[in-house]
Amino acid sequence: MKAIRVTAHGGPEVLKLEDVPQPSPATDQLLVRIQAAGVNPVDTYIRAGAYSISNLPYTPGFDAAGVVEAVGPTASGVSRFKKGDRVYTSATVGGSYAEYALCNAQTVHPLPGNISFPQGASLGIPYATAYRALFQKAHAQPGESVLVHGASGGVGTAAVQWARAAGLTVIGTSGSAEGQKLVKENGAHHVLSHRSEDYTQELMQLTGNRGVDVILEMLANVNLGKDLSLLAKFGRVIVIGSRAKVEILPRDTMSRDASIIGMTLFNAPPAELQSIHAAIYAGLENETLRPVIGKELPLAEAAQAHVAVMEPGAYGKIVLVP
Description:
Layout: E1 2-5, E2 16-19, E3 29-39, H1 41-48, E4 64-71, E5 86-89, E6 100-104, E7 108-110, H2 117-120, H3 126-137, E8 145-148, H4 154-165, E9 169-174, H5 177-185, E10 190-193, H6 199-206, E11 212-217, H7 220-230, E12 231-239, H8 251-254, E13 259-262, H9 270-285, E14 293-298, H10 302-309, E15 317-321
Parallel strand pairs: 8-9, 8-11, 9-10, 11-12, 12-13, 14-15
Antiparallel strand pairs: 1-2, 3-4, 3-6, 3-15, 4-5, 5-7
């Protein structure tokens, strides 16, 4: 089968399309024939060597959608899946940038028929991250307000959809006119340009100078210092992404009894993950969740996808198609 392989950490150029043996599922594993694989920023950090969680050589990728090709033996004798089932993955054993992916059964989830395979490949990390940030970490409640930074990207669009469906007042930011249009279409009540020098004043006017209850922060090294001055009393900033150090004024947290909460999806315990994916399935079925595909690229163009996913002006999800 064809798969992207990384034999040395480095830039996007280390992503190479190669022929590798097709794996077979062991006990409590599934083999999934990949129809689309999701590209996430974390994939680029691992490729560059920032996270030491993959032994070289390896195939990148966690998220994918496709069809069950084979089911391994089950320890309990019962399997949720059979050959031919439509599924999406939230993790893989050997990487999702491939024609086939081996997965542990607990990381495979049913994909409703109204959701395309590229949309299914957009779910694992973005929608689970947004849900965990909003509801398991920030404990956002109906009637509260939320500021979603980078609301036109994969996690951002998911967060806007989750928050709007849950009854929050949603304010989203994007740096382009196209992205701002997308944020509005996804359900945000208000859309701001984070490239505008006075967007923070606009936000405070929108909230009657009260500030927002929750901020989902995708680039803390740029925004965290400003975020703290935009919070209402007892507000929470959930740090989802950061690429460098940042300086803050602690008094901004003291005067508001505010909280800065860091998170990564990889720390979520199994019970939380089970709850997240049950919520994702329900949201897909009732169409409150609508994954947005920004770009589809052939598997051979994985390097281009890694460049695109880190560029400013995010728009929906980037997926690779074998």
